[in-house]
Amino acid sequence: MKTRRKWPRSINVAQIGAYVGVGAIVNGSGYALFLVLLWVGVEHKLSAAITYALGVFASFLLNRRLVFESSVSFLSGVIRLCVMLLTGFFLNMALLYICVDRLNCPASVVQLFSIAFVSVCFYFLNKYFVHRSASL
Question: What are the phi and psi torsion angles at 116 (to 5°)?
């Protein structure tokens, strides 16, 4: 009789699916809003800044409630979110510096890799840092 391989405890496939789903909804809605703002005449950088800020906030709220069922206080969660976002920013900049400036890799490829890598890091940072309560 074959035994079914079980995922390690830290990997929750349903949770990862919900995280990806929240990301798809937030980014899709954000892009639609970006296009609407452009259509009504808002400058593109301001449109991007508005949709980015709204997207970060929406993602935080949805991940907090639907994905991680966080019991961390709202203020603590927001502070942790800011730390996570800064970490992601500096990680992205470090990857670009090392791979593009030092190793002469194409920036377009490095940024694509960086988006994927930082997204995976963000899942684990959300799970174990931003939304982690003392009971975990």
Answer: -65, -45
106: helix, strand or coil: coil
Condensed to tens digits (0 to 9), the pLDDT of residues 67-85 reads 999 999 999 999 999 999 9
Is the pLDDT at 90 greater than 80? The verdict is yes
Proportion of the chain in helix, strand, coil states, percent, rounded to 5: 75, 0, 25
DSSP string, 15-51: HHHHHHHHHHHHHHHHHHHHHHHHHTT--HHHHHHHH
| Furthest C-alpha separation in the chain | 65
Give the whole-angstrom CA distance, residue 72 versus residue 55: 20
**Which residue, chain included where needed, has tokens 């639609």?**
32
Mean pLDDT, the chain, integer: 89
Give me the half-sphere count of Cα atoms (radius 13 Å) on the Cβ side of residue 27: 7
